[in-house]
Amino acid sequence: MTEEVKSTPQKEEPKLCTTKEKLGHAIGVLGHDSAYTLWGTWAQPFMTDILQLPLAFITALMAGGRIFDAVTDISMGVIADRTKSKWGRFRPWILRAGPLFCLCMALSFIKPPFGTVGTCIFAGIMFILTGSVIFTAVDIPFWSLPAAMTSNTKERDSIIGTTTTFSNLIVGVIGFAMPITLSALGETEWTSYFTIAAVVAVFAAVMYLISFKNTKEHVIPDDSEKFSLKLALKNIFTNQPLLCVQLSNLGFLLGMVMKGGLNYFYFRYNVGDLSLMAIPSLIGMVAQVLGAILFTVLSKRIGKKACMYGGVIILSITHAVLYFAGWSNIIVIFVCAAFSSTALGALIVCVNAMMADTIEYGEWKTGQRNEAMITSTRCFVTKCVMAASVIIVNITIGVTGYVQGAAEQSANVVNAIHTMYSLGTAGVVILGVIPMFFYKLTEKRHAEIMEELAARKAQKKD
Description:
Layout: H1 19-50, H2 55-82, H3 91-107, H4 116-149, H5 153-185, H6 190-214, H7 229-237, H8 240-271, H9 278-302, H10 304-325, H11 330-366, H12 371-399, H13 411-433, H14 443-461
Helix pairs in contact: 1-3, 1-4, 1-5, 1-6, 2-4, 2-12, 3-4, 3-6, 4-12, 5-9, 5-11, 7-11, 8-11, 8-12, 8-13, 9-10, 9-11, 10-11, 10-13, 11-12, 11-14, 12-13
C-alpha cells in the first residue's frame, strides 16, 4: 500500500455521540485517575517510610513490575480487540475490572503483621496484582473507548479533551487533598493511608459503574473479517506517526513521572513541609485545565504539532528557572508550577489526540482497525517510563545517602533531588520533542485518509 493519498474533498464524518455519552466517559476518568493517582503516587512513600522495606527491594519490585506491566499492556490490547459481547469490546472491562482494581488499590495500603520478608512478599504480590494485572485490564479498554464511540475526529477530540480536563481536575484534587489529609490523620501511621485509599476506592468504583452505563460503542469492526495478530502488530510497527508520538510521549512522561516521584521527597526534605505539596497540586489542577482548553482552541488554528512545540518550550524554561532560583523561595516554586502545569495540560491532550489520529492511519495501512492495540502502546510506554523513573529516583536518593524515615537529609541528598526535579525534568522533555520533527500526519492528511477509508467501505458494500 503506497504512502500517497489522493487529494479529495474533505468531508466530515457524521457525529455519533450524545452529550450524555461524552460525559459518561469523562465521569469514568474521575474514578479511573483518582484511584490510580493515589496508588501510583503514594505506593513508594508508603513502602519506603511506613513499611520501611529495603530500598533495593522497592527499586527491583517497582521497576520489574512496570516492565511486566508493559508486556501485559500489549497482551490486553489483543484481548480487548478480540472481545465480543452485547456491550461491545471495551465496556465489559470497565464494568468488571474497574471495581476490582479499586478494591486491590485500597488493600495495597495495609501493613500486615509479618516480618520484613513476609511484608516484602505481601507488598510484592499486591503491587503486581494491582498495577500490572487488574489496572491493565481496565486501563487499555477505557482509553480505547473514545475511538470506538465515534470516528468523527472533531467529536473524538472533544471526548478526549473533556475526559482529559476531568482527569486533570481529579488528579489535582487527589494531589491537593492527600498530603493535607495525611498530615491531619498522621503521616507516619499506615491506617491514615488505608483510610484515605478506602474512601477513594468506593468513590472510584461508583464512577466506573456510571461510566459503563452511560457510554456506547458506535464504531463496530466488520465481523466478516477475523482478527489477525500479524496485522495488529503490523498496525503498530509500520505506523510511523504512532512511533513518533510514542517516542515523544516517552520523553514527556519520563520528565513528568520522574518529577512526580520526587514530589514527596522534595517537599518533605527540601521545602521542609509536606503539607505544602498540596499547593502545587491545586495550582496544577487549575493550570492543566487551562492548558487543555488552550490546546483545544489553538490546535484548530496552528495545529497539534505546533501546540506541542509551544508546550515543550514553556515547560523547559520554567524548570530551568526553578533550578537557578533554588528551593528557598516558595513563591517561585508555585509560579513555576503554574506555568509548567499549563504546558503539561496542553501536552497531555495533544499526545492523546495525535495518538487517536494514528488509529485511522493504521487502518488505512493494514485494512484492520485496532483501537486497543494502538492504545496499549501508550500504556506500554507509560509503564516503561515508570520503571525507568523508579530506578532514577531511587538511585538519586540512594547513592547520595538517603536515610529512610529520617526527619532531615544531608546536603548531598537535597541538592541531588533539586537538580533532578528541575534540570532533569527539562532535559528529558527537550529530548522528547525531537521525534516530532519526523511526524507527518497533519490534520489535512488525516482527513484525506478518512475519505479513502470511507470509499473502501462503500465499495465493499457495493
